[in-house]
Give the backbone structure.
Amino acid sequence: MSQSLIKLTAEQVGKDLRLEWRSRDVLNSMLFFALLVVVIFSFAFSPTLEESRRMAGGLVWTAFLFSTVMALNQSWARELRNGVLDAYRVSPAPPEALFFGKCIGNYLLVLLLECLMAPLFMVFYNLTSVGPYWQLAVVFLLGTWALVVNGTFFAAMSIRTRNRELMLPLLLLPISIPAVVAMVTGTTLILTGESSPLTQIKFLGGYCVIFTTACYLLFETVLNAE
Amino acid sequence: MRPSRARPRRLSPRDTEGLRLTTDALPVHVEGVSKIYGRTAAVRNVSLDLMPGKFYVLRGENGAGKSTLLRMIAGLSEPTEGEIQIFGSKPHDAREHMGYMAHAPLLYDEFSGMENLEFFAGLYGIESRAMLTEAMIRVGLKPELTRRVGQYSQGMRQRLSLARAVFHAPQLLLLDEPFSNVDPDSATEIAHLLAAMRNEGKTILLVTHQLGLLSKMADEFLFLSAGALVNREAVPQGGA
């Protein structure tokens, strides 16, 4: 990455976080949705500790996946309001800075959501992990990036469609299935301590590298598509 | 007295710094450009050369293809057929030297005027706050205004939008309805500001319906009808 690309990406991240701090559009909707999932499933199933460990992986990632979809739609909608995206496109700034800036901004917001929601999950489902917590952290860091990088790309693709709120999950979910399976399996293996999640972690690492590269290479085409 | 009207001003080496262009490259060269959406031709076979230091007004009824043509010149839309060159390069490669103002203000509502300009200046690699302050003062806005753009009046938004389009001192200005939602006094001020920019050697292509303001300031009127360029009408010199 060139110096200017890093600088422009950092400016983009700073701008997105400042806009979010002032409007709180994304964080409020993500938090509200994730909280609903935690509370409703907790009361609906009243699981035992062992059941909690088995189902928590799927539950946690369902909540974060759909919260991420909401965040991504909002983050691009902000660029469409007042046509700001056109101001970016007529500038000499490289499209990659916009892409990585959006990815990192969204990634930080989703990680913040995860940090806020993790204690609530622990309390509502009476969860403790049998496996090491650092492995859980690795799965969450890689899994969240996998969702955000694809989500940012597909949100940019669906941004100009009439039903963009519907289009994003339709495009994102099928391509995210392998990553979601790895995240859920990895999380469950760590929580139950049944076996090592190394295979899932390696898979997520490879998935992140491949899809980050592919999205990076294709983003300019998507941004300038009419 | 405007020497630039008598003879098109050549770009100085400073003007063209960073641009891959030939010394006699025109600010805008449009050749056989068409834009077709499905079965509808928004722009049909338009050929057009714009000279340096001239003020052009693009006219036409609603749906004539004015904004589409402007977007293609700005590089925001690809022509279906034909070629566009800006200072001898593709629009994409000459973006540094273009200022674009659209119907929408192209600003973030949650930021103040200066915060908006600072962000966009970063995209052009400009770190001088003095340039931004000057741009705001030039369009009649106070740089120290801390109010967010979402709370601006329409007229103030238009002024800030113009400041965003000109802060990097572009040689070519593409303006789509810069007077819409602006009170008559502000519109007159903006028109005079644009005329001053033309006198500095910038080329201006402006789409508007408010001709009264510009009848004495523009150098040439271009008429677009059903996507085709049907007429060009030069304003007699010395009219301003």
